[in-house]
Amino acid sequence: MIWTVLLLVNGILFFLLLSNRSRSKREPPLDKGVIPWLGHALEFGKDAAKFLTRMKKKHGDIFTVRVAGRYVTVLLDPNSYDAVLQDSGSLDFSRYAQVLMERIFKLHLPNHNPAVEKAIMKQYFQGKSLSSLNSSMRRNLQALVTSETLPNQKDWKSSGLFNLCYSLLFRAGYLTLFGAETNNNSPDTRQIYKEYRTFDGLLTKMARTTLNSGEKQVAGEARESLWELLSAAGLGESASTWIRHYRQHLQQGGADQDTQTRAMLLQLWATQGNVGPAAFWLLAFLLTTPQAMKAVRREFNRVSLNTAKGPTLDSCQPTPVFDSALEETLRLTAAPFITREVLQNKTLCMADGREYDLRQGDRVCLFPFVSPQMDPDIYQEPEKFKYDRFLNADGTPKKVFYKGGERLKYYTMPWGAGGNSCVGKPFAIEAIRQFVYLVITHLDLELCEPESGLPAVKTSCYGFGMVQPEGDIFIRFSHRSCDGML
Ligand SMILES: *[C@@H]1O[C@H](CO)[C@@H](O)[C@H](O)[C@H]1NC(C)=O
Ligand SMILES: *[C@@H]1O[C@H](CO)[C@@H](O)[C@H](O)[C@H]1NC(C)=O
């Protein structure tokens, strides 16, 4: 209630302040919406994909909307994305990121330098370090997946697929990066996962500051438990060299213990928030598309090594069919916004020669989910899962796509692009590949209700990385008796 009143008062003030903004000839089409101050905020928050698709039909591939007092210019022409991504002089990434860090993680880093943090991460997510992360992740996944069922037992267990994928990948990722302390005081990964999911479930609302008071309390409690559970992360010998080095870097930068712990939670989310949901969607598509499952199994069968511990995926073997199925999954379900703040008035030059003025203080937002990823000018039947969409006729990876006769540099952007693309991409891909391999080689699994299809997308989470399902789909699984036979 108080929130509503405050919002109204705010609304009236801002309305007086901003309502007379009008479009100048050189600016993108302006759509303020009918509600003072809020503008399109409600529709935007409810289902950004639907809203922006509607705006695109109305205004074309660039327009400015009012959202809760801010003016946001949305650009949806992938051929023009570089004009935004490559101008770090006028368009700033880190301010808005810091706002979100504060809102979600209550984190304010002294001497924060994203470029240095990124360089640290880069150093540990490639080459030899990546190789040891890959194998540590594989061992952890293997132990967790096999512990789900008992060998020589044909008892079926049932579980929500989303919860199963998210928890196993999260726990393996936690052990790999943040480290398992072997003493009795070490936090139980199940408990960390449980608190994390509560926190994660409220994250988009934290980012938009739309939590109600009950939710605020739940989110706050989950955050505090996580801080406690993570307080020693990265201090022991068993953590990855990346997180140890990162923690030292924070110490040297003058961050106190509490701030370091908060940064651990940020990194936990940054590294674990998308991998589980991605694996879920991929398995969900495979389970509901038999010919895709068959093709992936056939390929895995070809590259399996038979070891004493059962079939193992040879990391060095290319798996183009799996890669295409994953790329297709991410095309359909990865939906981050790419947001920049306009630091000084600037002219945006589009690929087709149009020029638009952007105003200092506004935000610019790219939403690759609408285009290129779901763009019918690029992909036929874009809403359909076609596992071989990213394969050429000869079975090699397909990388050439066009829009309006123009070859696209960005035909799908689940990992972001430019200076802010995901450093952990090869590690994340390998984790998903190993996980899907383990699940389909070690478990017999089937949908409990094959007819009910895929769950709907939770539309309020567009803009924050991987989308999550509304509810879950249920599967039955048991130990696969004929190991090695796919
Ligand atoms: C780790 O996995 C990724 C993804 O499959 C692969 O590209 C990379 O070569 C692997 N790294 C090493 C060093 O094994
Ligand atoms: C930026 O553009 C706006 C709108 O066109 C104008 O009112 C403002 O004076 C400009 N600011 C600067 C610093 O040039």
TrEMBL record:
Reactions mediated catalytically:
a hydroperoxyeicosatetraenoate = an oxoeicosatetraenoate + H2O; prostaglandin H2 = prostaglandin I2
Which SUPFAM superfamilies does UniProt cross-reference here? Answer: Cytochrome P450
Give the location in the cell. Endoplasmic reticulum membrane
The record's annotation in InterPro entries points to:
Cyt_P450, Cyt_P450_CYP7A1-type, Cyt_P450_E_grp-IV, Cyt_P450_sf
List the cofactors: heme
Q: Name one Pfam family in it.
A: p450
Membrane topology type, per the record? Single-pass membrane protein
Signal peptide, first to last residue: 1-24
Chain sites annotated for binding heme: C422
According to the UniProt entry, its GO molecular function terms are: hydroperoxy icosatetraenoate dehydratase activity; metal ion binding; prostaglandin-I synthase activity
Tell me which residues bind substrate: R103, L109, N274, R363
EC number per UniProt: 4.2.1.152, 5.3.99.4
Q: Which UniProt keywords apply?
A: Endoplasmic reticulum, Fatty acid biosynthesis, Fatty acid metabolism, Heme, Iron, Isomerase, Lipid biosynthesis, Lipid metabolism, Lyase, Membrane, Metal-binding, Prostaglandin biosynthesis, Prostaglandin metabolism, Signal, Transmembrane, Transmembrane helix
GO cellular-component term (any): endoplasmic reticulum membrane
Gene Ontology annotations of biological process type:
prostaglandin biosynthetic process
Q: Which PANTHER family match?
A: PROSTACYCLIN SYNTHASE, PTHR24306
Similarity section: Belongs to the cytochrome P450 family.
Q: What does this protein do?
A: Catalyzes the biosynthesis and metabolism of eicosanoids. Catalyzes the isomerization of prostaglandin H2 to prostacyclin (= prostaglandin I2), a potent mediator of vasodilation and inhibitor of platelet aggregation. Additionally, displays dehydratase activity, toward hydroperoxyeicosatetraenoates (HPETEs), especially toward (15S)-hydroperoxy-(5Z,8Z,11Z,13E)-eicosatetraenoate (15(S)-HPETE).
The molecule here is called: Prostacyclin synthase
Say which species the protein is native to: Coilia grayii (Gray's grenadier anchovy)
